[in-house]
Amino acid sequence: MALAIDEYMDPKRPNARIVWEKSYKPLCVEHGLRIASYKTFNLARRALKTSFEQIKARFGLRAAKMRYRVYQRTTPPERPLEEVEVDHWLIDLVVRHPITKRKLGRPWMTLLIDRATRAILGCHLSFEVPSYASLQRALAHAFWRKDVSGIEGIVNDWPMHGVPFWIFTDNGREFRSASLRLAEAMLDFGVVNLPAKQPMLKGMVESIFGTMGVQVLAWEEGCTLARSDVYDPEEEAIHSLEDVHRLLLKWIVDEYHTRPHQALKGLSPLQAWIEKTNLYPVPPAPSFDHIIRMTGEEIPRKISKIGVEYEGYLFVSPRNDPGLLERLRKNGDLDRDWVIRVDNYNYGEVWILDDVNGEWLTLENADPEISVGVSRFQHKLIVKRAKELAATRSCNVTTHELLDARQELEDEADMVIGTGRTKGSTARAARWHTQGLLFTPLYGRGLPSIFDQPQDLSQAREILARAEAPSLEPTDNVEQAGVQILAASVPSDQPRQPHFSESQSLPGKPAETTGLIDSASLSADVEIDELIEDWG
Description:
Elements: H1 2-8, H2 16-31, H3 38-48, H4 51-59, H5 61-68, E1 83-90, E2 95-96, E3 103-105, E4 108-114, E5 120-126, H6 132-143, E6 166-169, H7 178-187, E7 190-193, H8 203-215, H9 233-236, H10 241-256, H11 269-279, H12 288-294, E8 297-298, E9 308-310, E10 313-316, H13 324-331, E11 340-343, E12 346-354, E13 359-365, H14 376-393, H15 399-419, H16 423-433, H17 462-466, H18 519-533
Parallel strand pairs: 1-6, 6-7
Antiparallel strand pairs: 1-4, 2-3, 4-5, 8-11, 9-10, 10-13, 11-12, 12-13
């Protein structure tokens, strides 16, 4: 029997009854032994090997530890914004286009939650797959004040905002990128990359995703949690992306934030936020334009004689300061790499750091008609189509080909949405039209939210124009953040250091970014290239 039980303890994970039938019984016959029943075989198996040993042998040590380990709950921080968790989630709901009713697939959500108050700081919901671009929009939404006063059906305010002190993440590429490391230094927060495959170490954000799925999405047509032979969520889906935004926004602001929470001793997250921010006031966030700059993607570049080149575009001195690049070039080494940041949802301008004066200065795209409001995803598609047009015209790619390519792709996106050739192309066309839209409007900002979606196809192209970022000129003292680091996000004495359930050293705030590979932009390029191949 011990030999048969050893066969059961195999990584191939054979079925116990099959082992009893195919291994144990022939062994008994071979040795002239009485054959024990299957029930007796199982009793012997459990007596010879503990359940932990069996799972370890069949599923691996990590699976065994995950099942049998007892976790100790840590004491949450006292101050708001002291510890914040962030993660991505492919929501459990299939959505349709609001006009044509074509299936668009399942959008992604990126969400930040405050450990001290259990309040949701901000989020981003779109067809943008997890990348630094979607993370950047979620950070901007969390850091700045949200304005939900004009949204029909919303009763309460969403006052949670501010730059955290520590952000806890998993090991996704976008969370380990050089762009995020530079944002840490400029906005003075720290990113703690938790050990891989340990979701319990950021259990609050994982729990909130599960709660959303059960309390909000499970009741809606198109929920993938109910997939079965008699229920196809893709066929039953009825909601648009805006509908899902409204459902989740209503739940966050008017239900979750106002419901008493056991971990908060009966207070709701909204009450806990108000109470704790009265004790530990949240320092004013830097200007929103500054947040967009500081959370943009880092692209170290040299200043050539004609300007700064990136992704085939040329960025030059702004019209109101035509000598800007020449002054910077004279003040620095000709071969030096300048710190430049770009908003991946708008290639109309980039920002360069003048580290002598501690200022971020705006550089304009030399071809605004083909770049303003164009995202990385759209740019890749436009360049590919422009090359195809140039080949058919036997010429080089010029601004004329790029303009024609952009117009063709806009028309094609409308057509795909209207005809829905394939689910994949429809989802990508929807992504073309919803690039960079914020989860809610923000106070005093020009960037559009999902609630600025067009009501008919004739208005679809207007999204790009409305998505243009405003002219980002320095407006307050915190614009000196390239040299002068912002104050910590909690007052008085230094907040506690983060702690984990696992034994490990605490990552410090990284200040050195030279030589790091921006893996977030690499992964985005790979993912975009794959999508481009499937566009048609």
